[in-house]
Amino acid sequence: MNTAGDADPRHLSFASARAAARAVRRAEHGRQAYRTVRPEGTMGWFRARGPLSVLLVVAAREGRLVWRGPDSFALLKPPMTMDEPYTAGGLRFLLLRIVDRRWETLCFAGPAGLAVLAALGCVPLHLWRTAIVFALLGMLHVAVCMTGLVATGLRGLLRTFRRRRDGELAAESLPARQWSMPLCHERDAGRAGELMREVSDRLSRLVDRRVRAASESQGGQPNGVFVTEVLLCLVTGITTDAMREAVPRQQRVGLPFGVGTDVVVLEPRDQVPGRPPRTFNTANFFLWYVFGCAGVLLMLAYLVADQERRSCADRCAGRPTGYGDALRWLGQRLLLSDPPDLRPQSPGMALLGWLVSIMALMAIPVAAVALQQVWRAADRMNRRFDKEAEAVLARRKILLLVATLDEQRATLDVFRRHGSEPYPERRPPHTVHRLGTVAGAELMLASAVGDPSSPAGVAQVATSIIGQWRPHYLVLVGTCFGLRPRERTLGGLHPGEQALGDIVVSRQARDVAHQAVTDVDGEPHRLDRGPRPSPSAELLGVLGAAADSWSGPALHIGPIVGSTTLYRSDEAIAELRRRHPDAVAGDMESHLLNGVAAEHKVDWIAVRGISDWGTTDKSDAHRHQAAANATEFVLHTIELGLLSHATATG
């Protein structure tokens, strides 16, 4: 439930944001989640990001906050190179973004700048002592910050050489080049699936919006956007124990670094080949070392100047007795020499100069070794992550297609009985049910409810759905009418072999609606002229292999006759049997699949359950069970793993 006043989460109020921040802090892992979403800055004293309430308001304005209330929300964060422009949204959000993204800079420069301004303000009033106090306070603040910078750099050096798990490294480095979820707060773990689906949908819309905006700025208009972004979910950003256990168990969630690590991934909306070619590799540690050395030099300059003034007495010419001269001399020592006009008199300072030179020389091996270790660890982690991500993208995607809502209900019931939690995903103008991952294959269900009397009916709907979702395999499930009923002998043919509820797998889909009619001996003679395409040989072989371990209703493999004609006639069925004695069943959709599948290079097959015989006593009493039986056999095949690692031939 949205808090009152936040019906539109893009305009989240500060009151709601503060309530959410309090809820995070009170959670079991609130402190750790707080540190994840607001990591430590380079100086160690301040956070890199602004207060959580500000961060949430900015994220809501940018559409990155999945908000269901102060006790149920998730935050998305883009890669470092993809932040929203500071100026988007007006002056108010310009200031909020500065507070959010430049918090550490503000904490560093703000007090020092205010102290300097206060000191300058005291000068016209001749308040010299007060001005000196403000100046010293500003310098003290800078010195403390620089000390923190050096300490953070040293700590970073130690961490570089410490052995760490790949998941820990991934949690630190991958958010720089991946979309990530650094914060997730949900009290009710039973709603984890619903929240993660909203997160996935929001990520898809954000990527879609950015791609379209980029295309329009270049004078183009994309026809469709396939989202291949893998979302990095940081476990340390999840606030409760229950959610930390629930999130890895959700559909479309992968564990690239194993169970119990700091990272899980949410699979992309569209599992098509190709991932965003982003690289982000910085030498932050070396920068910390440089800044730390600079901070040390700034502080040593005071010591050098003081010691030289004490030792040179009245012969101070050419000695670094002033702060500026001392700083210049120390800077020259970094180049292993003294300035020509400046040299210390104190032996201790001369030794200090050589130590500074050694510090400069040490920067070379330290940088080389540290960066080598960082790159080696990052490369190992990135290669592992990329391998897992590519495996996700290469996963077989199977689209189950039905033609009626009753067939859709029957299919969904089967998956629910097997423990799946199907959920609908809207992608205008169609809605597809996500059925989950079975034996490494992702399953979806679409209903191609069209006008069967029109060539642009079911085929047109199926074409649109396949174009949007890009499956590897297309399986038409649902019902058909049998042509070999067991209870009767058919026009001199062999006794029937089929019962209601039996399953039919198409070996051929014959279009019997296209005919040529001629007179032969004064009688009309019908010649079928429709195409007779065969389904995918791979799918036919896989389903045939699965039949050996199938213990359900009888399975019949053979030609299916297809027509837009609705059969409810004994005479018409008898004629159909005479013209196609080898056919095992008939329906109104299977003959339309070949053209649809060929257009998109998708392997296809039809698996149908016999619900009637197409005769005058036709009824819908067995339709639901027949469709369920067909779905059960398809699911049985997939559970065997026969479609998980196969390669679609198109």
Structural commentary:
The radius of gyration is 35 Å and the shape is elongated. It has 650 residues and is an alpha/beta fold. 45% of the residues lie in helices and 16% in strands. The chain contains 18 helices and 17 strands. Mean pLDDT is 80; it is low at 1-7, 279-284, 489-494 and 646-650. The strands form 3 sheets. Strands 1-2-3-4-6-5 form a 6-stranded mixed sheet, sandwiched between helices. Strands 11-16-15-12-17 form a 5-stranded mixed barrel, surrounded by 4 helices.
Question: Could you name the key traits of this structure?
Answer:
650 residues; alpha/beta; 17 strands; elongated; disordered C terminus
Radius of gyration: 35 Å
**Poorly predicted residue ranges:** 1-7, 279-284, 489-494, 646-650
- Gross morphology is elongated
* Average predicted local confidence, pLDDT: 80
Strand order of the largest sheet: 1-2-3-4-6-5
Question: What structural category arises from helix and sheet content?
Answer: alpha/beta
Compute the separation of the termini in Å: 46 Å
Number of strands: 17
Residues in helices, as a percent range: 40-55%
Major beta sheet summary = 6 strands, mixed
Beta-strand level of the residues, as a percent range?
15-25%
Count, helices: 18
